[in-house]
Automatic annotation (TrEMBL):
Enzyme class: oxidoreductase
Enzyme nomenclature, EC number: 1.8.4.12
CC terms in the record's Gene Ontology section: cytoplasm
Protein name: peptide-methionine (R)-S-oxide reductase
Signal peptide residue numbers: none
Cofactor(s), names only, from the UniProt record: Zn(2+)
Source species of the chain: Streptomyces nanshensis
Reactions it catalyzes: L-methionyl-[protein] + [thioredoxin]-disulfide + H2O = L-methionyl-(R)-S-oxide-[protein] + [thioredoxin]-dithiol
Molecular functions (GO terms): metal ion binding; peptide-methionine (R)-S-oxide reductase activity
Domain MsrB: 9-133
GO biological process: protein repair; response to oxidative stress
Record bears the keyword DNA damage: no
Length: 135
């Protein structure tokens, strides 16, 4: 897959911390309930930590009690891409930044989420950076 931002892995490794690299570039997952943004209520925009692309807005963040920040809709439908993920013995939809291809988390669907989209974008805190809205 070709992305607008296409860097060699050595460059990504130099620009990201080891944990950021593990999640963003190797599709890792941070432990549940440990992420910086799991419980934050700060208003603002969540950007890709690797390339700065706007991914989610705080107004779509909700309490899902899953252990990771959850959103019901991306900031723009073109901001993320969804890919089938058959790891872990199940079918899931992986969420990646559409601009740089970095792994963000997974999206789950179902009426049980009781969101306007019936979706839960379960995103690793370390994959995003919150830019607070100025008051």
């Amino acid at each position: 897959m070709t992305y607008e931002i296409d860097k060699p892995e050595e460059q990504w490794r130099a620009e990201l911390s080891p944990e950021e690299y593990r999640v963003l570039r190797e599709s890792g997952t941070e432990p549940a309930f440990t992420g910086e943004y799991t419980d934050t209520k700060t208003e603002g925009v969540y950007n890709c930590r690797a390339c700065g692309t706007e991914l989610f807005r705080s107004r779509t963040k909700f309490e899902s009690h899953c252990g990771w920040p959850s959103f019901y809709d991306p900031a723009d439908s073109d901001a993320v891409e969804l890919l089938e993920d058959r790891s872990m013995g199940m079918l899931r939809m992986e969420v990646r930044c559409a601009r740089c291809g970095s792994h963000l988390g997974h999206v789950f669907e179902g009426e049980g989420y009781q969101t306007p989209t019936d979706q839960r974008y379960c995103i690793n805190s370390i994959a995003v950076r919150l830019v607070p809205t100025e008051s």
